[in-house]
Amino acid sequence: MADKRDFTGPLMKNGRTLILAYDQGLEHGPTADFDTRNVDPAFIVDTANRGGFSALALQKGTAEKYYDGRTPLILKLNGKSTLPKGEPLSRQHCSVKYAEKLGAKAVGYTIFLGSGYEHEMVKEWGAIQEEAHERGMCAVLWVYPRGAAVPPDTQPDIVAYAARAGLELGADIVKIKYSGDSASFSWAVKAAGKAKVVMSGGPKTATDEAFLSQVQGTIEAGGAGLAVGRNVWQHPEPLKMADSLKKIIFENKPVAQVVAATPR
Amino acid sequence: MADKRDFTGPLMKNGRTLILAYDQGLEHGPTADFDTRNVDPAFIVDTANRGGFSALALQKGTAEKYYDGRTPLILKLNGKSTLPKGEPLSRQHCSVKYAEKLGAKAVGYTIFLGSGYEHEMVKEWGAIQEEAHERGMCAVLWVYPRGAAVPPDTQPDIVAYAARAGLELGADIVKIKYSGDSASFSWAVKAAGKAKVVMSGGPKTATDEAFLSQVQGTIEAGGAGLAVGRNVWQHPEPLKMADSLKKIIFENKPVAQVVAATPR
Amino acid sequence: MADKRDFTGPLMKNGRTLILAYDQGLEHGPTADFDTRNVDPAFIVDTANRGGFSALALQKGTAEKYYDGRTPLILKLNGKSTLPKGEPLSRQHCSVKYAEKLGAKAVGYTIFLGSGYEHEMVKEWGAIQEEAHERGMCAVLWVYPRGAAVPPDTQPDIVAYAARAGLELGADIVKIKYSGDSASFSWAVKAAGKAKVVMSGGPKTATDEAFLSQVQGTIEAGGAGLAVGRNVWQHPEPLKMADSLKKIIFENKPVAQVVAATPR
Amino acid sequence: MADKRDFTGPLMKNGRTLILAYDQGLEHGPTADFDTRNVDPAFIVDTANRGGFSALALQKGTAEKYYDGRTPLILKLNGKSTLPKGEPLSRQHCSVKYAEKLGAKAVGYTIFLGSGYEHEMVKEWGAIQEEAHERGMCAVLWVYPRGAAVPPDTQPDIVAYAARAGLELGADIVKIKYSGDSASFSWAVKAAGKAKVVMSGGPKTATDEAFLSQVQGTIEAGGAGLAVGRNVWQHPEPLKMADSLKKIIFENKPVAQVVAATPR
Amino acid sequence: MADKRDFTGPLMKNGRTLILAYDQGLEHGPTADFDTRNVDPAFIVDTANRGGFSALALQKGTAEKYYDGRTPLILKLNGKSTLPKGEPLSRQHCSVKYAEKLGAKAVGYTIFLGSGYEHEMVKEWGAIQEEAHERGMCAVLWVYPRGAAVPPDTQPDIVAYAARAGLELGADIVKIKYSGDSASFSWAVKAAGKAKVVMSGGPKTATDEAFLSQVQGTIEAGGAGLAVGRNVWQHPEPLKMADSLKKIIFENKPVAQVVAATPR
Questions:
Q1: Is the pLDDT of residue A264 over 90?
Q2: E161-180 residues touching D, CB cutoff 8 A
């Protein structure tokens, strides 16, 4: 019979989580997403620590040179640049063992569901998931439907597919895009079953309310929380945004009340 | 001389078997096949237990989070989504060792016979089959002829080919599609020799009789039973359907008698 | 200096051999080659035993479920179906160690010389050959020139190429197609040097004489014998055909005399 | 928590470095870059030693046959010729262990960012980086954006992307092309964070001033130094050029002053 | 610091070598290159022994069945037939360990520089080279520029590129084609540095003088000698040709004098 341990413990508070994601330098390029402040990983590590984030997701090199052991670390084991065209494929550049040595409590991996190379990532992830659990580490799966044959990745059935793939492939936490409304997202959460669902923050929204409403929709749908990057560290006041997010995620406060409490 | 152990024991009763299959969340997507009831793996595990199924086939993550050790487990070691186009390829995401650790008595693997990647799956399966037998586990092979160059997969000679490939590649149980009638299916069963043949349930049929007749045809043809998903867990009364199936498979009852006994 | 052991011993009698081949179920499909009698591996094993064959070539699954340890076993380590189109590639599905465990005295492997994937098979075979010899097992190589760029595979220079590739790649026995006449086949035998050459039986011929003449041509050319399937087990009287073959191969009898002795 | 060791120590003096690169024989071919003097690796090793270079970058064979242990060695672990067309891919031909045995203090590896094979190099590098650090060796990454889909590789955002990829993938030192001016290059240096940035020397410039100005721009931008080949060993007086470079890199002297001091 | 052992010792006499190459059966096919005399490996082994050759290069199978331990053996670890079209790729079919067991003092490997699969061979060779040196064996690299994008392979700059690639990739001896004249070949020899250069014999020339002049040109250019097949074993008097070659290679005799001394 299966080991029924809950590997998500170190990243969760009462079943909820707020993850600061910072792998965009490799995934999108520094010029696309960074300014002179947030280009510095030290600023991000500090934001994670002071903002009370549940976890911090970093690539290998950033973790090795900047991580200070305070906020729980999710080490992203694979990555790619945005430059190659064709079917997306992101390969493992960090072993689970090395991630543990760098202090990680969890490992992260991206599968581009529907890519012509889906099979490569499914296979690579499979071995990662097993080793992570053998070392007592949480296995977090970014599931991004992407490829020439894939419908828009925020389409509700595609979002739910990503969530379900996360569950069946053994993710403890599955990070997926928001489907646009709480009702359709709740189907994705149901499809993920006992795998915890976190919404992927995505690009900076025009207003704080717009973003916070998505997060609230995620929580209402039964999601466990959020993995956010740009909407925090591109925000003029990252710690205030962090406070707003924590109120919605951990205290179930409505957006209107949260926004009123944090005027800008 | 070969080890003549029969590895199918834990999944069989008097040489017959009724397997509940539940990997469709990954293979087809949750929206295609599930409703709010059967999207929940707990419901499926419960159905398997209460319905007296011979075995339950799950992907790694579903087993790890839901399996309770009651119905014998077949762990599906490979899987793919329905999103990528091109020649089908499904790679291993779970080791035999991990499957055993999750409590499995058997491992399952899909080969898309005729795919341009057939060779990759033949090779991967080969190592799985050996390790399974070394651990005393049953090796179940889903053989699905599929690919641009492959004739319709319910064509009798193609069904028989799938069955024979299962035998020659070392499957203890081979799961194949129904060829449409008992006479042609009996050729597939003969081709499989001492490998046990189970019919693949396929999509929900319009009437119970239609499905039960296929199962009866399988049994009459010498098949060992059925691996069924949608025709049970999409059925309004899964346990009644399970009862009907058990009467046909284990008691050799004719469809007419079974249907009369279970009015809806 | 090299180990000069002769690994072919268990398969040879006075330097000659008659091998019963039975991997056509996977290679061609059961409907193409089998009837209700020869679809049954037990019939083939019995034919090998009673017909006094030097060896029996089986795929892993057939060996595991039917082999009885009487006729020496050649385990075919790779295989493919006839369904995929494009450049042919057949990958290893059985380890040398597992073959030994199944009771094999020899391992068999097919290389499609000239295929766009020739290199994959050359590499895979290389490791197999070494492990076989380390375990004291004979390494038998099926060399079939096949691929879009390959001339007809019974053309004498192509047959000789296959034979030579077998020698240089380390085969103890190389199985090749007949080149049509004894004179041209003797060049292939010369090219194979100390590697023993066996003719590949091919499809059932219209008359026994036609087939037996090819075998006689092989022996006259210096070949070691024959690996035959369909011309024996599709024959109405397999044991009589076996007797005819043994007279030609082991007693150097001419076809006319053999046919006269076994009227039908 | 991560190991915060600084692996760059043996290659650095006060945080600056001047590396002599000599892998052009394989990368470009000898006729493209060499004359009868610099074709001889002994001349290069001597130049590195007498010129006071911080490190010398060699391919495996050149190191094995010529390296004398005086200037710290960076062993280039992968390489390719310029002959194949299509998406660039350079694979590992030297293990980290062998590099260490050859006396290397650091290993070097090239990733063609944006290549259709980027993923292969990312994966291969990942394992190299870990083993290097486990052996206490510095991991130097050449990041060259190249491939059909990649913008010009001296475009500032592309240069900065290369730098950032180096940081996130775990490079201790990242070697990138110069972006044309100090202002834009300082963004690349910022993007690289705690990974040291060295400018890639590139082809021989028309005048010494042109090249020295680039180096000065790199230093002003916060770069750690230079990896130079042709602009030194194609120079009529390599040691004078080395002196000029050291003045700029280690003494922060302006180009005008350096050139005045070394008339030709 | 690197191990400065000279691994070429067993193949050299005063820094010169004369290698008998015999892998053409696999590389070109027996009908293309052989007659009834030289198709027999025993004849070749005898020729090597009696002709006083410095070394004999064989594929695995030929060595295993014919090698007698007298002339030092170079085991060719990879090989391909001439049948597949498309970018050339030759994969390893013999391990270094097995080569040593067969009595080899050296291993040989072919890289098709410029092939679309160059990277596969560079990688495979890299591991071979290291293991060979760890076992104290010489590593001989055949560098043949070949592929759709490659200029004619006897063009001087391409020949020099092959030589240099051999050096940088760690070959102890590099076998390259002759560039047509001694002057241009001396550039290739220079490019190879401390790697010994042997000329590849190529097809039988119309006259002995034509071939011997190439060899003399190689020696004058600083080359270490010759790896010859067809110009010896297709010669009516192989031992006389061997004598002529030895006079040129080991005694620096001019062609005119050598030819006068061996009238035909």
A1: no
A2: 161, 163-171
| Cβ distance of A167 and B61 shorter than 8 Å | yes
- In the block, tokens 């929940």 appear at B40
User: Which phi and psi (to 5°) does residue B146 adopt?
Assistant: -160, 140
Burial of A180 (0-12, 13-18, 19+ CB in 10 A): middle
At position E56, the amino acid (one-letter code) is: L
pLDDT of E127: 98
Task: Place A5 in a pLDDT band, splitting at 50, 70 and 90.
Answer: confident
Which tokens is B106 given? Answer: 């058997």
Place of tokens 């057949």: C90
Nearest Cα neighbor of D165 from D240, D157, B225 is D157
Q: How many CB atoms lie within 10 A of CB E154?
A: 15
The pLDDT of residue B149 is above 70: yes
Q: What is the pLDDT of residues B22-64, one digit of tens each?
A: 999 999 999 999 999 999 999 999 999 999 999 999 999 999 9
With CA atoms as reference, report the closest residue to A75 among A52, A51, A102, A107: A107
Give the Cα separation of D82 and D91 in Å (integer).
14
Q: Do A83 and D145 touch (CB under 8 A)?
A: yes
Residue E196 φ then ψ, to 5°: -75, 135
Q: Nearest CA of chain D to the CA of E69: how many Å?
A: 29
CB contact under 8 A, E81 and C113: yes
Q: Which of C67, C80, C81 to mutate against chain B (most B CBs within 10 Å)? A: C81
State pTM to two decimals: 0.96
Interface contact A84-D147, CB threshold 8 A: yes
Q: Beta-strand (E) ranges in C32-103?
A: 55-59, 73-76, 78-79, 91-92
Structure tokens at E133: 């040196």
Interatomic CA distance for residues C224 and C141, integer angstroms: 14
pLDDT of residue A262: 60
Give me the phi and psi of D62, to 5 degrees please.
-65, -40
Q: What angle do CA C203, C206, C208 make, to 5 degrees?
A: 95
Q: Which residue among D2, D125, D195 places its CB closest to the CB of A102?
A: D2
